[in-house]
Automatic annotation (TrEMBL):
GO cellular component term, pick one: cytoplasm
Pfam family, one: zf-C3HC4
Keyword match Plastid: no
Taxonomic source organism: Geotrypetes seraphini
Region of interest (Disordered), ranges: 1-25
Protein name per Swiss-Prot or TrEMBL: LON peptidase N-terminal domain and RING finger protein 1
TPR repeats: 32-65
CDD domains listed in its UniProt record: RING-HC_LONFs_rpt1 (cd16513), RING-HC_LONFs_rpt2 (cd16514)
Organism taxonomic ancestry: Eukaryota, Metazoa, Chordata, Craniata, Vertebrata
Domain Lon N-terminal, first and last residues per copy: 521-731
Molecular functions per Gene Ontology: ubiquitin protein ligase activity; zinc ion binding
């Protein structure tokens, strides 16, 4: 990436001594921003060493908010990943497996919540601010906010929750208990949390999530050794679980080992780059590392140390080229147990540089012999303890690997352990004898859920059923909760897990349901029988016709014509006796613009003309059996010659009528209908004749019954004569 010269150029040093104080402060701010921008550009070009120096220089001018170092974090992460060969872990496949397993924590899907993307997570994973994006599709996950008993955000999915409780009552109960524990910890009610933890530890000492909570509790009481021990076990079982690294990093950070925690935060981010709290932590640490220490600490710093640094910096080292050629690599003796000993880290190198910059300002000597740098506070572990911790291999004891004690007869059936050890560790196979079609029924159509969509209140309906409800009112048909926001987002994503469960456990019912659906679609796609009719205005072949669709029945009609793929419907004017006229014109949908409340502006263009054979109704809108109209072709040479002559005369007449219109009218017509179409080479080439005739008919200010009669003519000659009569009438008036 090229860096604009203007940003790389060294700024002239201002003579700050002569400037007024206010000016000086502002100047420093501007200078800092320029440096930060330069740092970003250097980081993006992978010139990390220079970037770090530039950031440090900026931070010497004043503090910046940690988020400002986002670009640096991304660059470091990229470098770290490339060097370690870590690809971000995306959960395999496009959909959620049929197992009731949370893609966030890999645990049992207790109290499932379906996010707007259609993927379902356990309540715990959405409560904490740990997951910001869906691990399947990277879409942003809604936050669960539970303030003062008021629950906003997505609620527990009613259907899925029923299934988890019915199929796995013990796990479900347990998940709820752990959820409560999580909530207590979240709210800081540690005493109660400790009591519950102890209780569960007795009954189920091997539960991984329990270990996670126990670690949190222990860390809260500064029992870091115990916390790390638990998290090591968790990580040995779930080596691809970003949250595990995040939690361990947190504990290490709390214990004062910022350096090691940084490594683990990066590991977490390498597995899930959207892990927002880890990103924040890294930014904060970098900010601290690069910032100068307060004035009082700085005392005693000697000038020579700065010049010494200058010398080191002037050595030809190419940190920017980083990945292929990491320079100044040091065998890392201080890596913790998760990371292979002696491996070389590009990031380490960069950070060593950063630290070297900071070294200047650090009063305490970094504890090199320990291989650990005490950056913030005093470590809260003795070096002996710490050594023991970090040396501890993530040995997976037999005990650790025992599956969670299954206490129901059903859980014994499945639980494949081999293979995908990462995230499906705790998954179970669904007990077949407990599968009941009625659990998968849509309460609107009383049929098997088809393309099930779960809305924020937790209720699930077939997508089509839900959309029809929303045509009428933006609220849940069951609990009446407002869906205004949901409707505006227009994201009716199918609940993947439910669809998967239906596909897997009710294949026959599903194929039957699909057959019914396909028959319906085929019926709706028929373009001669039961064709939907919009009763509104005159439409003509080739002439654009924009429509504002707001009535529920027409919302449904337009949506169906999109779903079936025909993208067509008939347009007729109303008729007092017959509901709608005998003749009409098909409209082709070119584009739809949806408004926030479900109304839409539909851009259509006229297609074939038709005659109504029979009038019918479907779901509130009119339909008709129709036959299409086509002009009778003139074959006789002489007659055709005469027709061509007539055509040319009427065309010139039309042109002069249009030219003689008052400017105001002319520009209105041009705005609504566009300019008049050109004459065509062969006047009989299309079944509807020359396009300009339809354009003219549309813009002439005549009664729509008159227009309708011209529309229904299947002789071009007759149509031209009719148009000529109208033009003659209007031209006479024009000349008056
Ligand atoms: Zn989860
Ligand atoms: Zn998703
Ligand atoms: Zn339904
Ligand atoms: Zn509801």
């Amino acid at each position: 990436m090229a860096i604009p010269a203007s940003l790389c150029r060294q700024e002239p040093v201002s003579d700050s001594g002569r400037s007024p104080p206010g000016f000086k402060a502002e100047n420093a701010e501007n200078e800092a921003e320029t440096l930060l921008q330069r740092g970003d550009l250097l980081a993006l070009s992978n010139r990390l060493k220079e970037a770090l120096e530039t950031y440090a220089a900026a931070l010497r001018l004043g503090p910046v908010r940690p988020g400002r170092l986002g670009t640096l974090v991304e660059a470091l992460l990229l470098s770290y990943r490339a060097h370690e060969g870590i690809a971000p872990v995306r959960v395999r496949g496009d959909g959620q497996g049929a197992e009731l397993c949370c893609p966030g924590c890999g645990g049992f899907l207790g109290e499932p919540v379906t996010a707007s993307c259609g993927h379902s997570y356990c309540r715990r994973c959405l409560r904490r601010e740990l997951l910001s994006r869906c691990r399947f599709c990277s879409q942003s996950l809604g936050r669960l906010e539970e303030e003062g008993g008021q629950k906003t955000g997505n609620r527990t999915s009613v259907v899925l929750n029923h299934l988890t409780e019915k199929w796995f009552p013990v796990q479900s109960h347990r998940a709820k208990e752990l959820n409560r524990l999580d909530e207590l910890l979240w709210k800081g009610q540690f005493e109660e949390a400790r009591r519950i933890t102890l209780e569960h530890t007795k009954s189920d000492p091997e539960d991984l999530m329990l270990r996670v909570y126990r670690a949190e509790l222990n860390a809260g009481h500064q029992e870091f050794m115990a916390a790390i021990r638990d998290l090591n076990v968790v990580l040995s079982r779930l080596p691809d679980w970003p949250e595990g690294y995040f939690r361990k990093a947190k504990v290490l950070q709390d214990a004062g080992f910022v350096d090691d925690s940084l490594q683990l935060f990066l590991q977490c981010l390498a597995l899930d780059e959207d892990f927002a709290p880890a990103k924040l932590a890294v930014e904060k640490i970098l900010c601290d590392l690069l910032s100068p220490v307060p004035e009082n600490v700085k005392e005693g710093l000697k000038e020579p140390s700065w010049s010494a640094l200058q010398r080191t910096q002037s050595k030809p080292f190419v940190l920017g080229t980083g990945v292929e050629q990491p320079c100044c690599l040091q065998p890392s003796s201080n890596q913790n147990s998760e990371l292979p000993k002696g491996s070389k880290y590009a990031v380490r190198t960069c950070l060593d540089k950063a630290e070297r910059i900071c070294e200047l300002n650090l009063v305490e000597k970094l504890a090199k012999e320990e291989g650990l740098k005490r950056v913030s506070s005093e470590p809260l572990l003795s070096s002996q303890e710490k050594g023991a911790l970090l040396k501890q291999k993530p040995t997976v004891s037999d005990q650790d690997l025992t599956m969670c004690d299954d206490r129901t007869k059903h859980t014994k059936q499945g639980g494949t352990m081999e293979g995908d050890a990462a995230l499906v560790l705790l998954c179970q196979t669904v007990p077949k004898d407990l599968i009941d079609t009625s659990d998968f029924e849509c309460s609107l159509c009383i049929r098997l859920l088809f393309e099930p969509v779960t809305i924020p209140c937790g209720h699930t309906f077939c997508k089509k059923c839900l959309e029809r409800c929303l045509d009428h009112a933006p609220q849940c048909p069951l609990c009446k909760e407002s869906l205004t926001e949901y409707l505006a987002s227009r994201k009716y994503n199918v609940t993947q897990l439910l669809e998967e469960l239906i596909r897997k456990y009710l294949p026959d019912e599903l194929s039957e349901r699909r057959k019914v659906y396909e028959e319906e679609i085929a019926e709706l796609s028929n373009l001669t029988k039961n064709v939907p009719v919009f009763v509104c205005t005159m439409a003509y072949p080739t002439v654009p016709c924009p429509l504002h669709v707001f009535e529920p029945r027409y919302r449904l009609m337009v949506r169906r014509s999109i779903e079936t793929g025909t993208k067509q419907f008939g347009m007729c004017i109303s008729d007092p006796q017959k509901n709608f006229a005998d003749y009409g014109c098909m409209l082709q949908i070119r584009n739809i613009h949806f408004l926030y409340d479900g109304r839409s502006i539909v851009d259509t263009i006229g297609g074939k003309r038709f005659r109504v054979l029979q009038r019918l109704m479907k779901d509130g809108y009119y339909t008709a059996d129709i036959e299409y109209l086509e002009d009778i072709k003139v074959k006789d040479e002489e007659k055709l010659h005469k027709l061509q002559e007539l055509h040319d005369v009427v065309y010139s007449q039309a042109c002069s009528w249009f030219q003689n219109l008052r400017n105001r009218f002319r520009s209105q017509i041009l705005h609504h209908f566009g300019s008049m179409p050109e004459k065509e080479e062969n006047i009989q080439v299309t079944p509807d004749g020359p396009a300009w005739c339809w354009w003219l008919l549309a813009v002439l200010p005549v009664d729509c019954r008159y227009q309708l009669s011209v529309l229904s003519m299947i002789s071009l000659q007759e149509r031209l004569i009719k148009l000529q009569q109208i033009l003659t009438y209007f031209s006479r008036n024009q000349s008056k």
